[in-house]
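Hey, weird one. I pasted the dTDP-4-dehydrorhamnose 3,5-epimerase sequence into the form twice and got a warning about non-standard characters only the second time. First submission, copied straight from the form history:
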Amino acid sequence: MKATEVPAIAGAFLFEPTPYADERGSFCRTFDADVVRSVGLDPGAFVQDSLSRSVGGVLRGLHLRSGAGEAKLVRCSYGRIFDVVVDLRPDSPTYRDRAFFELSDETQVTLYIPAGCAHGFQALTETADVSYRIDRPHDPAEDVTIAFDDPELAIPWPLPVTSMSERDRKAPSLAEVLAQKES
């Protein structure tokens, strides 16, 4: 497994497994504490694993947490997704920058998203399972959502949206969210 920095988002990393394939199929390590530690992250800091299953075209996000934020490892364990990260850390050298990824079950690449970044994805296949390893227990009072179609972000979602939560559909713009943080 190797770790690669994501230039567009300071502190974000891609963890790429080294698959072994033979006539039986394949095997790969999707988490390695030593590799995580090698880039300055504490592998023991992750306290919750979650899984979402989405049907094609579903859009989830853009989500982040207020307060101390939430760092997470994200991997598409089945299917393919278009994944988006937006850096909303005011002190970051990549503040307000965006990065896009295609994550899939073929590569099993894991994306590390630092606390303070918004995250969202769209399912590109009929079924897409996304695995999360999160560094804080969930507190719904800290949930923040930003409009997926905010013109300031101009995210090039690849498919028409087939479904999304009511919360995501009614999410405020980035400008509104940032104004709330300042007040």
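That's the output from the first submission. The warning seems to come from a hidden character in my clipboard, not from the data itself. Residues 174-182 form the longest helix (9 residues).
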